[in-house]
Amino acid sequence: MDTSVIKLSHCEKDIFCFFVPDQCPECGMSFSGKRLEEAPVSVPNPFSNGHKVPCAFLVAPAEHTVLRDFDGQSDLHTGITNTNGIVYNYTRAGVQRETEGWERCVCVPLVQPDMFSLINQWDQYLEKFSSHQMWDPLCHSFDEETHNCYSFTLTFINCVLAAQSKPGLSKDRFTHTFVLPRIRRASKYMMLCREISQNHFHIVDSPKRSSRESPSEDEDSKAF
Ligand SMILES: [Zn+2]
Which of the residues 117, 127, 160, 176 has an alpha carbon 20 to 30 A from that of 206? Predict the structure, then answer.
């Protein structure tokens, strides 16, 4: 269902669409046989298949929900992948280990690819952490506000940081640094797709050349 969005520029506008049109929707100039000033570029899709991203934090929108600002609870479900793409996520029924269902989510890779010793121990850490009684529904019950899927993922991340003698991350800091920028990008992308499916195009003024391609926020920051 994900169509890829392309961006082309004409008439000092950025034109977003699913296909290169025959003519410019602004000025009507025919594109056939003509060279565009700049080749159309594809807009990166902010969603990925969580089962293919090892050692990552995942956010999946609950069914039929539009991604909104993320407050750490609400309609979004979060999980952590092991090195084989199995998603560990905490629910009322305890920790689930899922091999499917997270094919379209926002992924935050947590580990630098050269941290071999951490990667080698990751699956053990995650399994041991998930087996702790803190996540056993017979010992502790799920709580929408205080003991939920987000507490599970964040507590795991902090345990790994502690094991590496690194300072922990508060919920606010993790949310603002790692999660929100990606959620915003995902939510913009979804709005763009909706707009294009209704009107064929989404047209905005081209940003000034000097300010275009500003580095994407936190794309490369890792927790570890
Ligand atoms: Zn034009």
Answer: 176
